[in-house]
């Protein structure tokens, strides 16, 4: 937990499920979904979501001539339907690829779990936005009705925002199937969402340059973060997209540097020189000299005091 000035900031797992943050964490991040391996990439994804929301609101409010809540809800519903279709298709294609290198029976449980999370997300999206649309269309209805609709609308929007954060991190729990599936699905989905605007030339009332930046900004950013994430998974954890989820390649680690070995014939540069410089010289310098250095001695080798 992170210490704040007036207490502790609780994580999403510790928040009550009556609050939208705790409810979104409980529904869209169950215990069987693994935590992210790389917190750097997880932070980048959150920053991308915040930047995308700021850019979208800014474009609709200050450039496009006004924020159209109905159009935003329509785009969100279309995104939910696209996720409902493209996610199973992409996972099915990858299952055909992984079938060549390993059995798929062990992936049955995470596949069903991911499908449940996907259905819950699409159901919550359609349900909450549908209720808000009906309430906005009916208008009045009494003070009590308006109060509950306002409270429920705020709770539902915060719940969807927290759900989007959780889904953006694990992409419906597909990280439990393969760690490279979330970046792949995010890339495919973002380009499919931008493809209709590119084909029809719908630039949302913007100029050509601003429209191209607005339409291509999200898929390009998502693709860059996805490639960065898969590169780090391959280099640091040995996880490749085409490899079976239960097959890991040893991560690429630079080989250790070999110890220094002097060239042959050069000797060891800091060792003693050849031979023994401090050994004794030939012979004994303090012993008697060889032979008699002062001649043959006394003239009479016998008694020197005799005659």
TrEMBL record:
Residues annotated as transmembrane: 49-70, 76-97, 117-137, 143-164, 176-194, 206-228
Keyword field: Membrane, Transmembrane, Transmembrane helix
Region entry Disordered, spans: 245-307
Species of origin: Streptomyces mesophilus
DNA damage listed as a keyword: no
Protein known as: Uncharacterized protein
Regions of compositional bias (Pro residues) in chain numbering: 252-262, 270-291
Keyword Transmembrane helix included in the entry's annotation: yes
């Amino acid at each position: 937990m992170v210490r704040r000035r007036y207490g502790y900031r609780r994580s999403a797992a510790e928040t009550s499920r009556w609050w939208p943050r705790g409810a979104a964490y409980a529904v869209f991040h169950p215990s069987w979904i693994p935590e992210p391996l790389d917190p750097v990439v997880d932070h980048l994804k959150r920053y991308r979501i915040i930047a995308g929301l700021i850019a979208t609101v800014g474009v609709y409010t200050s450039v496009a001539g006004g924020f159209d809540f109905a159009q935003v809800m329509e785009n969100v519903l279309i995104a939910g339907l696209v996720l409902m279709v493209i996610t199973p298709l992409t996972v099915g294609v990858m299952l055909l690829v992984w079938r060549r290198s390993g059995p798929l029976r062990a992936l049955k449980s995470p596949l069903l779990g991911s499908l449940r999370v996907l259905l819950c997300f699409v159901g919550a999206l359609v349900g909450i936005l549908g209720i808000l649309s009906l309430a906005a269309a009916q208008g009045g209805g009494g003070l009590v009705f308006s109060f509950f609709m306002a409270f429920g609308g705020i709770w539902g929007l915060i719940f969807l925002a927290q759900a989007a954060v959780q889904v953006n991190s694990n992409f419906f729990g597909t990280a439990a199937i393969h760690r490279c599936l979330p970046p792949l699905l995010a890339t495919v989905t973002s380009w499919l969402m931008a493809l209709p605007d590119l084909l029809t030339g719908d630039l949302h009332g913007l100029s050509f340059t601003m429209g191209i930046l607005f339409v291509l900004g999200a898929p390009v950013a998502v693709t860059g973060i996805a490639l960065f994430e898969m590169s780090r998974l391959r280099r640091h954890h040995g996880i490749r997209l085409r490899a079976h989820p239960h097959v890991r390649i040893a991560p690429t680690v630079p080989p250790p540097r070999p110890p220094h070995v002097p060239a042959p014939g050069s000797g060891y540069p800091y060792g003693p020189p050849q031979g023994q410089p401090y050994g004794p010289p030939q012979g004994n310098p303090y012993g008697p000299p060889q032979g008699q250095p002062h001649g043959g001695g006394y003239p009479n080798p016998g008694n020197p005091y005799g005659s």
